[in-house]
Amino acid sequence: MFFEIIKSIIFGIVEGVTEWLPISSTGHMILLNNFLKLDVSKDFWSVYLVVIQLGAILAVCTVYFKKLNFLLYRKDKVKFNNSINLWKKIIVGCLPAAVFGFLLDDFLDAHFYNFPTVALMLILYGILFIIVENHFVKDNPKCTNINNLTYKLALYIGLFQVLALIPGTSRSGATIIGALILGTNRSVAAEFTFYLAIPVMLGASLLKIVKFGFAFTFSESILLLIGMFVAYIVSIIIIKFLLRYVKKHDFKVFGWYRIVLGIILIIYYLLAIR
User: Fold this and answer.
1) Cβ neighbours of residue 268 closer than 8 Å, sequence gap 6 or more
2) How many domains does the chain have?
3) Which structural domain, as residue segments, surrounds residue 192?
4) I need a labelling partner for 70 at 20 to 30 A (CA). Which of 6, 11, 95, 124 fits?
5) Rounded to whole angstroms, how far apart are CA atoms 87 and 68?
6) How far is CA 231 from CA 11, 49, 96, 174, 238, in A?
7) For the segment 56-114, what is each residue's pLDDT rounded down to a tens digit?
């Protein structure tokens, strides 16, 4: 049990780092499990892979507590309306992923949660990040403040989020690419990506738990809680880091990272199956 707890801590660290950087958290978790396999049942692993993200969600709620908690502004009409409107945009942006995720959950689990898919998606979206930064990012973006994000733009960004249902894509990566193409600046793209994670990841986690039937053993519950807690702490650090980073840098470094990692993984996979 001790070694499984250590493994869960490592998985929590990886989840906290990769959930918010556009490099695919699920992809990294699947890959890590190939080298540092958590000794649990296949069904529980499927739940663990998704539910550990609840720690990352709580981190967003902590960092953006004031913006998201409209109850704090009952006496300030402007801030109250901004917070309510933000939640409405989040819901609109999450609708596409919620619909497609519910319909395709079992199919995606069966056909795409594997090593080759992750490696290929890492490379593909790494290339897309570089292309978008070189050709689509404008010096004067049309949306530079989260309060100016329209419902139409929120919906379109949400459509890009559907792409992240395939592991290795990166939910944050897909939405950031979409937001940049659609004309937001990097700060708005990153911030709205954080917000979109709340209902999407919460819904996905609840769906997995319901399908699993709440039938966790004591040891499984401990592993999941530890992973979530570590992911929560690490996520807070990474969210704050990324918000500072995008003010002065672009996303190309993440694109190159994805390409290099994807190539290494393909080589490893081809050598392993010989």
Assistant:
1) none
2) 1
3) 2-272
4) 95
5) 7
6) 8, 12, 26, 21, 10
7) 999 999 999 989 988 888 778 888 899 999 999 999 999 998 888 878 877 877 777 77
